[in-house]
Amino acid sequence: MLLAMALLIIGLLLVAYGADRLVFAASILCRTFGIPPLIIGMTVVSIGTSLPEIIVSVAASLH
């Protein structure tokens, strides 16, 4: 039980860190290319958050 709780906490911390890095990288893209943040949010961030589901769906359909 203790191991499960530790893994849960570590997983949550990693998700929070990954989300922070995603937002940071998206803001750099906005500044570098002069793209409005709304466009970056609707495309890059949405694709990034949907990508795991897309990969699982493609892998499942191939099997």
What best-fitting shape do the alpha-carbon axes yield? flat
Task: Indicate the mean pLDDT.
Answer: 90
Rounded to the nearest angstrom, the distance between the terminal CA atoms is 34 Å
- What is the oligomer described by this structure? single chain
Could you spell the SSE succession in H and E letters? HH
The total tally of domains equals: 1
Strand portion: under 5%
> Radius of gyration in whole Å, from Cα?
16 Å
Count of helix runs: 2
Number of strand segments: 0
Task: Describe what you observe in this structure.
With 63 residues, the chain is an all-alpha fold. It has one domain. The chain is built from 2 helices and no strands. The protein is flat, with a radius of gyration of 16 Å. 0% of the residues are buried. The model has no long low-confidence stretch (mean pLDDT 90).
Structural key phrases:
about 0% strand; 2 helices; about 60 residues; mainly alpha; flat
Put the structure in a nutshell:
The chain is built from 2 helices and no strands. Helices cover 92% and strands 0% of the residues. One of its GO terms (biological process) is transmembrane transport.
Break the fold down into its secondary structure elements and pairings.
Layout: H1 2-33, H2 37-62
